[in-house]
Amino acid sequence: MRILLTNDDGINAPGLAAIEAIAAELAGPEGEIWVVAPAFEQSGVGHAISYTHPTMIAALGPRRFAAEGSPADCVMAALSDAMGDLRPDLVLSGVNRGNNSGENAVYSGTIGGAMEAALQGIPAIALSQYMGPGSRDLVDPFEAARQHGPALIRNLLDRAPWDLNADYALFYNVNFPAVAADKVRGIRLTPQGRRQGANFSVEPFVSPTGRRFLWARGGPQDVPAGPGSDVAANMDGYVSVTPMRADLTCHPSLAALQREWEPA
């Protein structure tokens, strides 16, 4: 198996080492692992691409590249340049340091990388590790993802729908709970949730030179979300798996509008 890896935390992030270990187990001794990851952290960029300026890319070693761009840029760089005529069998994005459950999914560069792969017709999975009291003090805070990731990905590849020929192919968002690997309670197939009142915001500050700046701040990550959601599953010690598409259409609303507005 030929696997392409990217992330949004950057080429030197510890979560990338975790996903390299997962990929090595999946690919086997005859497989290939390619890495094209951002040169610098790109958290919160979503599915952005560097449309108005070029992206510098540098080879760091065999099948390993850093690109000055977003995760979506990195996937495009891999497919159109770094990998030559080769095409990956699977794209893995992550392992993100912090969850991409609930509303975080909307902002996530980790998900943006997987989404771009899906738009290119390649099976793709975004993986994120919830951080909290149960994981932050572990020797390896990514151990839940590292130990449970390979079997979960194999199951998705073998048993999950992919719809790669659809206009908007499915991809999967996986979030591991903030617990030690042996404390993971199982897997839940969930919709994307919404934490109550956990909005992003900005906090102003003034620099020593008198200039005014704004820092983006996330909302609390331990507040409730709807029962059965990805957030609820993660907070209860389960791995969440959520199928997603790049299609942003609200199809039930569209059908209702068509019935109301369009002539019979």
Explain how this protein is built:
The chain is of the alpha/beta class and 264 residues long. The chain has a single domain, classed as Survival protein SurE-like phosphatase/nucleotidase (Stationary-phase Survival Protein Sure Homolog, Chain: A, 3-Layer(aba) Sandwich). 28% of the residues lie in helices and 23% in strands. The chain has a nine-stranded mixed sheet, with helices on both faces. It has a two-stranded antiparallel sheet with strand order 9-10. Strand 9 and strand 10 form a beta hairpin. Helix 1 crosses helix 5 (143-159) and helix 2 runs parallel beside helix 4. It catalyses: a ribonucleoside 5'-phosphate + H2O = a ribonucleoside + phosphate.
Short synopsis of the structure:
The protein has 264 residues and is α/β, with parallel strands linked by helices. Helix content is 28%, strand content 23%. Strands 3-4-2-1-5-6-7-11-8 form a nine-stranded mixed sheet, with helices on both faces. The protein has a two-stranded antiparallel sheet with strand order 9-10.
Give the tags.
264 residues; alpha/beta; two-stranded antiparallel ribbon; 7 helices; 11 strands; Stationary-phase Survival Protein Sure Homolog, Chain: A; globular; 9-stranded mixed beta sheet
Largest sheet: 9 strands, mixed
Order of helices and strands: EHEEEHEHHEHEEEEHEH
Structural class: alpha/beta
- Total strand count, please? 11
**CATH class assignment:** Alpha Beta
What is the radius of gyration computed over CA atoms, rounded to a whole number of angstroms?
A: 19 Å
Distance between the termini: 52 Å
Catalytic activity: a ribonucleoside 5'-phosphate + H2O = a ribonucleoside + phosphate
EC number: 3.1.3.5
Protein name: 5'-nucleotidase SurE
Function: Nucleotidase that shows phosphatase activity on nucleoside 5'-monophosphates.
